[in-house]
Fold Protein FAR1-RELATED SEQUENCE.
Amino acid sequence: MVGLLRTTSRSESENSFFGEFSNPHFSLVEFSMQFESAMDEQRHRNAKLNADSESCIPVFKTPLPIERHAAAIYTLSVFYDVQKEICAACFSCFSTLVENIDDKLHYTIKDNRGMTFSVMYSADNSYASCSCKHYQHVGLLCRHIFVVLIAMGCPTIPDNYITKRWCKIDIAKRYLGSVSCGIEGDSNKENTRWKINHLWANIHACVALAENDSELLDAFTKVIKTQKQNLERSAYSGDSDLGKEQDF
């Protein structure tokens, strides 16, 4: 049921987003143009989020290396959610019992509300599970597991608990695509597609970085117009050197 609700909620969100760009009276051509506008808007939003994640340095609230690691791998908004759990592990939770059963550590964790949770941890494969099921629901580790990781002196979040959809690198990879290693013809096509996607990513990132500064927007627009003119002259004259990289 939880999965169904998530799917329904996601569909409603997508319908709401595309509803801003569509109309039931659109022709097929109009719909296609509006769909492209919607995709451009989505790319712009993603580029802005990536730019914010890369350019913003969060304020750390603990001296723990695991908090720095979280900031390095997660997008900014997701990091703040993880940071809350790390801080809660430090200041709002504590271990009341530790048992070693079948080479696995079983912790009883109590929070400041008086509620208790069970965490099982195996150092051999960095496996951890908590009775609160926070990771299964959200894809991020809970404060109770962070209590155990901090107690064990773990400097980083275990790889098997890093959900790729929340990571900076994974977002960039899915956005830019990857170059396949097929036959030469297919490889060239994939390489061209990757370059085009990479170019769009850079353009949208530049717009996201400059959108709040009129002077930066004007300067970037001037660069784009100048390069467009160079490319047009190159296309008309057949001289590819005209469209190559120039200093601005």
Observations:
- Strands lie at 93-101, 104-111, 116-122, 127-130.
- Confidence is low (pLDDT under 50) at residues 1-6, 178-184.
- The chain has nine helices and four strands.
